[in-house]
């Protein structure tokens, strides 16, 4: 027996390489947790830990909005965990709940965005545009979220597309949580990052880049769902920044909030 044959017969030291399913489980699980922590961290002073921060009481509409959007984040973590533990049947049953929840989120998201824009002194960090210009951001979030969830539901039998669309849909609504990290006391304010919508785009892009890097390293190529879905989110983000300051948008925003 040659020395090469002897070497090949010896057991390899160290853990075996991760399987495709194990890599997917850790990536999608980690992204679900990261997105949920972003929302919790951003809304902790005004919603989740409001009594501790002494924040004034919220209206019933904001309470409902917070509860429904929180339910989506919790459901997304649960759905990801169900797939990770191969409980596909339960995952599919909860998919109907997710579809109804997504519809409620779009309605509530638009309603709350319009209500906030009608307030004469909307509470935005310094560096962000006025309420009518800023309105394009939450409304755009809802358009992107609805489109990505719709694509995910349409492709619900295609596992690779479905899970990527649902992750991207969740990333598309992180602007609200990320933006609140610019408020006084927020981690982004502490780090000194410039408080403006372009920074939000850059932070959202980091989540998308993580998706692309995962596909490239784990699969050897980027899945079209991540590529085109990620580009759609970035195009929506940059497109609204260009649209928000135009006379046409301001006219439309005044009509919406009148």
Q: Briefly, what is this?
A:
This protein has helices at residues 3-9, 20-48, 50-53, 60-84, 88-118, 131-134, 136-154, 159-172, 175-180, 187-191, 197-219, 224-244, 247-257. It is mostly helical. The protein has one domain.
- Which secondary-structure class do the elements indicate? mainly alpha
Number of helical segments with 4 or more residues? 13
The averaged pLDDT comes out at 86
In total, how many beta strands? Answer: 0
Distance between the termini: 87 Å
Strand content: under 5%
Cα-atom radius of gyration = 21 Å
Biggest sheet overview = none
The string of secondary-structure elements, in order, is HHHHHHHHHHHHH
Helix content: over 70%
Principal-axis shape equals globular
Low-confidence stretches: none
Domains, number: 1
Written overview of the protein:
With 258 residues, the protein is mostly helical. It has one domain. 77% of the residues lie in helices and 0% in strands. It has helices spanning 3-9, 20-48, 50-53, 60-84, 88-118, 131-134, 136-154, 159-172, 175-180, 187-191, 197-219, 224-244, 247-257. Helix 2 runs antiparallel to helix 4 (60-84), helix 5 packs antiparallel against helix 7 (136-154) and helix 8 runs parallel beside helix 12 (224-244).
Describe the secondary structure blueprint for this structure.
Blueprint: H1 3-9, H2 20-48, H3 50-53, H4 60-84, H5 88-118, H6 131-134, H7 136-154, H8 159-172, H9 175-180, H10 187-191, H11 197-219, H12 224-244, H13 247-257
Core attributes:
globular, mainly alpha, single chain, 258 residues
């Amino acid at each position: 027996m040659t020395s090469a044959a002897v070497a090949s017969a010896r057991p390899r030291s160290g853990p075996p390489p991760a399987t495709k399913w194990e890599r997917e489980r850790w990536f999608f699980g980690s992204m679900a947790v990261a997105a949920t922590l972003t929302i919790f961290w951003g809304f902790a002073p005004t919603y989740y830990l409001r009594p501790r921060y002494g924040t004034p009481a919220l209206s019933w509409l904001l309470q409902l909005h917070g509860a429904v959007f929180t339910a989506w984040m919790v459901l997304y973590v649960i759905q990801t965990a169900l797939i990770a533990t191969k409980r596909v049947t339960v995952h599919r049953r909860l998919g109907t709940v997710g579809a109804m929840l997504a519809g409620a989120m779009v309605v509530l998201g638009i309603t709350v965005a319009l209500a906030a824009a009608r307030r004469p002194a909307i509470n935005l960090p310094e560096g962000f545009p006025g309420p009518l210009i800023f309105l394009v951001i939450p409304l755009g979030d809802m358009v992107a979220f609805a489109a990505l969830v719709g694509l995910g539901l349409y492709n619900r039998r295609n596992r690779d597309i479905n899970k990527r669309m649902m992750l991207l849909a969740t990333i598309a609504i992180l602007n609200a949580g990320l933006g609140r990290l610019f408020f006084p006391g927020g981690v982004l304010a502490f780090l000194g990052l410039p408080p403006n919508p372009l920074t939000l785009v850059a932070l959202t892009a980091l989540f998308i880049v993580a998706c692309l890097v995962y596909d490239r390293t784990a699969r050897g190529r980027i899945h079209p769902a991540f590529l085109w879905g990620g580009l759609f989110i970035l195009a929506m983000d940059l497109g609204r920044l260009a649209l928000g300051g135009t006379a046409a948008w301001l006219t439309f925003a005044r009509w919406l909030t009148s």
